[in-house]
Amino acid sequence: MKGFGSKDLQGKIAQPIAFNVTGWNRDHFVSSLDEIESRIERLIENIRGSHPDWLCRRGCDSCCRRLAELPIITRAEWLRLKAGLLTLSAELRQRILTDIGSLAGATMPVMCPMLDADEGACRIYPYRPLACRSYGYYMQKGIGLHCQQIEQKVASGLLDQVVWGNQDALDRDLRVEGEPRSLAVWIDDPLDGMHGGYAIADKSI
Ligand code: SF4
Ligand code: SF4
């Protein structure tokens, strides 16, 4: 269950990389997000380098179809996701926003409103939240954050050599950007929401 659920497994966890925080402004949010994403990408490259047949790929969308709840994300993640929504047609965007509104408070399994169910692909892939990037490759408090397919490989010992990412370290670093909130809350935020006054001219996008 992406981001919010998983099963027990044993494994190695990558050590967190030192990450100093000295400010709290929008530029800092963006650089923090970029840094954390780079860290995730490096880890994924390492894993895929030694396991070129890794299961996560375009069209494999079981995890996006079975979320425990709507994504819960920080402001920086939301601002980027919002920019992704703004790249879509007005009609599609409105459909997604309506879905998000109707799924507020819903519990598992929730199909992500941003999933293109026919293609099995994320409609806002470059703008997706961090949990979507780390899922499949990370562990949290000794628990694997991945789907049953990967879990079966773990159970069979095929992934014994994998050095998993440390989701607790990612979450700790993300917390400097403020408390995460549900997507359903962000879309209605008076300042940053879809109808708010914050101009979406993000240099990181
Ligand atoms: S976590 Fe599982 S379902 Fe999700 S992309 Fe990876 S292999 Fe596919
Ligand atoms: S935002 Fe994209 S990658 Fe993340 S759960 Fe939704 S469809 Fe999947």
Structure overview:
This protein is of the alpha/beta class and 205 residues long. It has one domain (30-194). Helix content is 39%, strand content 11%. It has a five-stranded mixed sheet with strand order 1-7-6-8-2. Strands 3-9 form a two-stranded antiparallel sheet. Strand 6 (138-140) and strand 7 (143-145) form a beta hairpin. The radius of gyration is 17 Å and the shape is globular. Mean pLDDT is 83; it is low at 3-11, 15-29 and 198-205.
Structure at a glance:
This protein has 205 residues and is of the alpha/beta class.
According to DSSP, the number of beta strands is 9
Q: Biggest sheet, open or closed, and with what strands and sense? A: 5 strands, mixed
Q: Low-confidence parts lasting 5 or more residues at pLDDT below 50?
A: 3-11, 15-29, 198-205
Name the beta content range: 5-15%
Mean pLDDT: 83
Rg, rounded, reads 17 Å
Count up the helices: 8
Terminus-to-terminus distance? 28 Å
- Ligand types: iron/sulfur cluster
Question: SSE order, as H and E?
Answer: EEHHEHHEEHEEHEHEH
Classify the secondary structure makeup into a structural class: alpha/beta
Could you estimate the helical fraction of the residues in percent? 25-40%
Overall spatial form? globular
Major beta sheet, strand line-up: 1-7-6-8-2
